[in-house]
TrEMBL record:
Record-listed 5-phospho-alpha-D-ribose 1-diphosphate binding positions: 78, 103, 130-138, 202
Free-text function comment from the UniProt entry: Catalyzes the conversion of uracil and 5-phospho-alpha-D-ribose 1-diphosphate (PRPP) to UMP and diphosphate.
Regulation: Allosterically activated by GTP.
EC number: 2.4.2.9
UniProt xrefs under Gene3D superfamilies: 3.40.50.2020
Gene encoding the protein: upp
InterPro entries per the UniProt record, alphabetical: PRTase-like, PRTase_dom, Upp_B, UPRT, UPRTase/APRTase
GO molecular function, one term: magnesium ion binding
One cellular component term from this protein's GO annotations in UniProt: cytoplasm
Protein name in the entry: Uracil phosphoribosyltransferase
Length: 212
């Protein structure tokens, strides 16, 4: 597994505003979108491209185009949905599939309640969007799901990670080169409720309000 923590002053600045408990939902959503745009730029460095012959108004030349099949972006509902617009902004032609996953707050196991993805992901590069990597159960389940369906590689883009979750993911994935995790920051630890410390609270609730 490859791990990339984005060291950029704008990322750190926006993340600090995101963490503040007084930041209201509309601002929180805007910051998630902005952060996602910055992370997506780095996370798509190894995207597959191919040469494309084109004509400018002046001459013929060889340009570059995204390869087919196009990448597929997979936001993990709910909180990952807040990251989708930032990704679409820089890669508008990518396809989008959805996984709905809810963490059981007693056992911390990930429960899948929705799936709108192609069964066959052969040769597809997949980008999983989920702001929080806490115990890692959600990301492990979603990455396994995509690789089992033939994904060529999976890049998970997260805002915050806990060392415990990153280790769990590393232990699970091992030295396979087809899984990359891109993060804006690695925090201190998980608390007894499985929340990232200092973290930003429940990302889904802060984006969309509290539901039971
Ligand atoms: O690493 P883990 O311990 O699995 O935790 C991370 C997951 O928890 C949160 O989802 P949540 O279950 O709160 O659902 P929500 O997005 O609908 O709020 C978060 O958005 C991740 O998907
Ligand atoms: O801190 C955390 C941990 C899991 N999910 C969240 O939304 N926040
Ligand atoms: Mg939540």
């Amino acid at each position: 597994m490859r791990l990339q923590v984005i060291d950029h002053p704008l990322v750190a600045h926006k993340l600090t505003a995101l963490r503040r408990k007084e930041t209201p939902s509309p601002v929180f959503r805007q910051l998630v979108e902005e952060l996602m745009t910055l992370l997506a730029y780095e996370a798509t460095r190894d995207i597959d491209v191919e040469p494309l012959e084109i004509e400018t108004p002046v001459a013929k030349t060889t340009g570059t185009a995204l390869s087919n099949p196009l990448p597929i972006v997979v936001p993990i509902l709910r909180a990952g949905l807040g990251m989708l617009s930032g990704m679409e902004r820089i890669m508008p032609t990518a396809e989008v599939g959805f996984l709905g996953m809810k963490r059981d707050e007693e056992t911390f196991e990930a429960v899948t309640y929705a799936n709108r993805l192609p069964d066959d992901l052969s040769n597809r590069q997949c980008f999983v969007l989920d702001p929080m990597l806490a115990t890692g159960h959600t990301l492990i389940a979603s990455i396994d799901y995509l690789l089992e369906r033939g994904a060529k590689d999976v890049t998970a883009i997260c805002l915050l990670g806990a060392p415990e979750g990153i280790k769990a993911l590393e232990d699970h994935v091992g030295d396979r080169a087809d899984v990359t995790v891109v993060l804006a920051a690695v925090d201190e630890r998980l608390n007894e409720k499985g929340y990232i410390v200092p973290g930003l609270g429940d990302a889904g609730d802060r984006l969309y309000g509290v539901v039971d």
